[in-house]
Write a structure and sequence with these properties.
There is one protein chain. This protein is an alpha/beta fold. The protein has two domains: 317 residues, Up-down Bundle (ABC transporter transmembrane region fold); 168 residues, Rossmann fold (3-Layer(aba) Sandwich), CATH 3.40.50.300. The chain contains 20 helices and ten strands. The strands form two sheets. Strands 6-7-8-3-9-10 form a six-stranded mixed beta sheet. The two termini are 57 Å apart. The N terminus and C terminus are likely disordered. It binds adenosine-5'-triphosphate and magnesium ion (MG). Magnesium ion binds next to helix 12.
Length: 600
Amino acid sequence: MTDDAALTVTTGPPPAGVRSLWRLRGYLKRHVPALVIMLTTALAGVGLSIAIPLVTKAMIDGPIADRDLGPVLPLGLLALAFGVLEAFFIWCRRWVQSNAVLGVETDIRHDLYDHLQSLPMAFHGRWQSGQLLSRVTTDLSSIRRFSGFGMLFLLINITQLVVVTLVLLNMYWPLGLVVAASAVPIIYLSMSFEKRYVVVSRRVHDEHGDLATLAEEGAVGIRVIKSFGRSRFVGDQYEAAATKLYDTSMDKVRLSARFWTFLEVIPNLAVCLVLLLGALGVGRGDLSPGTLVAFIILMLSLVWPVASLGVILAMAQEAMTASARVLEIFDTKSEIISGHQVLEHPSGHLRLEHVDFNFPDDDAGEAPVLHDVNLEVDPGETLAIVGATGSGKTTLTALLPRLYDVTGGRVTIDGVDVRELDLVNLRSIVATAFEEPTLFSMSARENLALGRAEATDSEIEAAIDVAQADFVHDLPWGLDTRIGEQGMSLSGGQRQRLALARAVLARPKILILDDTLSALDVHTEKLVEAALRDVLENATGIVVAHRASTVMLADKVALLQDGTITHVGQHSDLLAEVPAYRELLAGDVTDSDTPAGVSA
Ligand SMILES: Nc1ncnc2c1ncn2[C@@H]1O[C@H](COP(=O)(O)OP(=O)(O)OP(=O)(O)O)[C@@H](O)[C@H]1O
Ligand SMILES: [Mg+2]
């Protein structure tokens, strides 16, 4: 996040209303010159729009009443000059405005994205991606619309209302009073409108987020949906959410429609009243015809500011809701904070000491996912982790690069607690090939170089060799082929191999393979393993294994049971001595693996 974002972050309940909008002011501060220009040109415009009716009044009460046409030309030219100047100011304001406004939106978007990236896995596990999506897009646009147009017009309109009313009172106070009095119901209505609108508006935004989540899941999960023939079910779900959003949006529209009608009616009623009383006043000689004309022109110039007040207040409300939703993200602090220590030449000596781990939202009563895990892996050594599905293997490996932090005990690399290490440094030391290989919609090359952008072509080739991923050369554009969002155009095994090549290419000191070879056929697996042996020679390896063949990569095996490591030893010893281990790998153990005397 950029440091001068001036986000005064508070803890406690989510922010709401004006306060939340106010907290985004840091972004406006960067555009102070533009704001000053916008405001001065806008106020000058208001001044000119008042000056023009005053010239008209001078014209009617002067040359026209006196039937002396001499001053008509200069007065006319003056009015024309005022008009041209006003147009120029409007143009200036528009020009500056667009620049500043888009700048504000881009700044917030940038910071929001950075912040999202810095938030821990636990946050992303809790939040639906659709909600994030709608906050990053729709909500930011609402804030932009208000901070760009709404806020300025709110200021201009209120200034115009106040100044013009004062001018009117000064012109002829009885009529001025009528105008001023009509403000009372308007203010009252606006306030009650605002209270109700904020509730509906928040509901609309949240439902937008829910709908985005459904749309996204529908697109990402299309294969599952189609193959189970659940298109109808998913469609119904989406339709229900869409209808709900429609209903809420209609509530919102009905509310604003009623409000706007009143806002239109009240000033027009006032105009009628003024015309009537004004005509009487002129008849009695209390005011000149020119004054009445100027009065009416000025008053009519108030109709739009008043009527648009509804739109602007709605916009303001919308922006407040949106900024509250955006701030909810900003207010979530990353619990995983980078340390300061940097290991220049790590050897990769890994230790887990009495490590406990619980997912943040788990009930306190539940058994912890991991407890009292003790492990030591020497530099260059490779450890296989074997455990039943759901026993916590993936969770354990996630603790090393601090995707999650331990809740007890500690993880050290070369004797340094990982929490004291600089995060960038730590994550360059540890690389993981995950069980679900995520590929991004970029070229194969970019996908591979994710862990090390500066990798040379020959290094990329070497990594591809290790992972037996040379199929990339057969893609239509070779390494430059763009791979689908989820690598849809690749097979599961191909994706796994790319993910493996990516992890190898990062040249980590600690390489984690989370069941990375599961989708490979036996032949390819053998080739990959042979190549991996060389890589693992120079790195500390953690290999999550479900198959005996994968276990053979390792120097020793750890058995994970009930959230803790119960045995560490050689594959053959565990196979001989530990029934639970034998059961896990039983179906897979070939005769050559089986020590004499042990039946698989
Ligand atoms: N984000 C999460 N929030 C809450 N609980 C989780 C989360 N991820 C995993 N768990 C739970 O933690 C336990 C361990 O999960 P983990 O993914 O580590 O298992 P695993 O040993 O890797 O299993 P597999 O062999 O199937 O990959 C499981 O009971 C799982 O339900
Ligand atoms: Mg797993």
